[in-house]
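for the writeup, i need someone to sanity check this before i put it in the appendix. the sequnce is what the collaborator sent (i think, or maybe the updated version? ugh). structure was predicted straight from it, no edits. if anything looks off just tell me and ill rerun, i have time this weekend
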Amino acid sequence: MRLRTLYHLGNWGPLMSWSGCAIMLGIGSAIREAGADSVDWPLVMIAAAGTVIIQYAAHPVNDLLDYSVDARANIKGTGRHKVLHSGLATRSELVQLSSLLIIVAIGMMLYVTLMRPLALVFGLVGLFGLWSYNWTPLRLSYYPFSELAVDIPVNITMVMAIAFVAVDQVLYLAFVMGIVQASLAMTMHTSYFAMDTESDSIGGKRSTIVAYPRFPWCTIYPSVGLVAVAALALLGTEAWLLAIPAVLLVVEISFGLKMDWIRFTYLRKHGRGVREKFFERLFANVPASVTDDWQTTSSEMRKILTKQTMIMIVNGILLTAVLLVV
């Protein structure tokens, strides 16, 4: 398999914002609570590598199982690469690659389990997320609210697992950081669904946005995340520690408003009745032409999604820095 194929399969923005940030927040939580001297660095590096490999493996799996839906999506116009559709890889190559990666990740998980038996529970949550999201009989990606069923437990578990492997303790701080991570992950994931609304609808993939198009989901999820952060502060987590995610979730809400406005405007313009004038005045500077056709609409959504992904990465970096320094 060519290096170019492996590069495109990386889907590096989501990989860095999910696995990358979860690893940083987990290690940051462990060091803050137990000190750098208490961290088992070789073991936590193995756990971190396994975490990244599992998410990387999800990408060829998604390409294989969503082939018919992806064929209708605006892949090129939204700056993505699907190696099956472009001819960079064959189905057999992706099957072999994903199988190899999953076997390697399971091997790493079992090794870590020998040192930290409870790590097996965390690892199984991650594997369950990969399986349940993609494969039958569950195949949650084809049903509403998969972002709740998968994103919340997987992201919380990733952060807590890294912290646990690092210092052999289940840390409340890691749980808090996991909730922050999950809130941002759901926000980004929902924007992906918004960007692929048309192709998902045609292909029978009933995401939350496809099943319930009249609700502003891209605004709802970061708003729920902001409420969760406020609740954590009220429950005793130091408010200054939550200041960064609180501010960034407000920014995500503004991006979500814009994403919902574009989607609603497109649906109304094309006779798909939705609520009228949802926050349109907030984004009057968006040219009406961006909703003339779905290719242009989804390309405009991709610009917002790219910013949301960067917000998630910035949160991981800044919040980890706060955990380590302040």
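The two ends are 45 Å apart (CA to CA). The domain at 3-325 is CATH 1.10.600 (Farnesyl Diphosphate Synthase).
thx in advance!!
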